[in-house]
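Query structure, 205 tokens:
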């Protein structure tokens, strides 16, 4: 998905910021004490989730395919003086350096933009330590209105929870569970569209 510098600069809207704050608490509820642990955010954007979580982790790495988002995140990190968040290149995750490195991998509102879900999960699962946790937050299946005004969107209109749980299990994750993490309303030009996000958890055996 292409993000211009202008779009990245305006990404941190009050609505996204409020949602991120709520999701930070949902993630903390799942992971408990994270002192001494390492994490990776897939599709970090401008770092709204990671900024909320970094005080609780030893280190968080972030990865995003959008250069404009990476630039915006880097500027925010420098401005805030945050030292335990390290942006990395997505392509580097395909090598050996990060295999078995992370206690937690999390991603929010990213996977419905990815066409090859199985391929992405096949990349993610080996990056977890044994006993590590993958947390996927994404849009419940909907009728297409959520992205109706997003030009160029060619992803999924959310996901069926049972289907996604099966995909996590196919990627080798176990003890998969799912619950509702957030409900909200997206304001379009001519209507308000209610939506819900699920939080799916899988463990690396």
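Result returned for the query:
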């Amino acid at each position: 998905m292409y993000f211009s510098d202008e779009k990245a600069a305006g990404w941190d809207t009050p609505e996204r910021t409020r949602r991120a704050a709520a999701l930070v608490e949902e993630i903390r509820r799942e992971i408990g004490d994270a002192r001494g642990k390492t994490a990776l955010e897939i599709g970090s954007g401008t770092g709204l989730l990671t900024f909320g979580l970094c005080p609780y982790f030893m280190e968080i790495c972030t990865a995003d395919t959008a250069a404009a988002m990476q630039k915006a995140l880097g500027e925010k990190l420098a401005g805030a003086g945050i030292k335990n968040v390290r942006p990395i290149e997505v392509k580097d995750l395909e090598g050996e350096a990060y295999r078995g490195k992370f206690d937690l991998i999390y991603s929010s509102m990213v996977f419905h933009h990815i066409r090859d879900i199985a391929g992405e999960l096949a990349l993610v699962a080996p990056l977890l330590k044994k006993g590590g946790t993958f947390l996927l937050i994404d849009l419940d299946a909907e009728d297409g209105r959520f992205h109706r005004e997003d030009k160029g969107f060619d992803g999924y209109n959310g996901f069926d929870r049972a289907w996604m749980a099966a995909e996590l299990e196919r990627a080798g994750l176990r003890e998969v569970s799912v619950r509702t993490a957030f409900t909200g309303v997206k304001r379009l030009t001519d209507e308000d569209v209610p939506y819900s996000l699920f939080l799916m958890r899988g463990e690396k055996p």
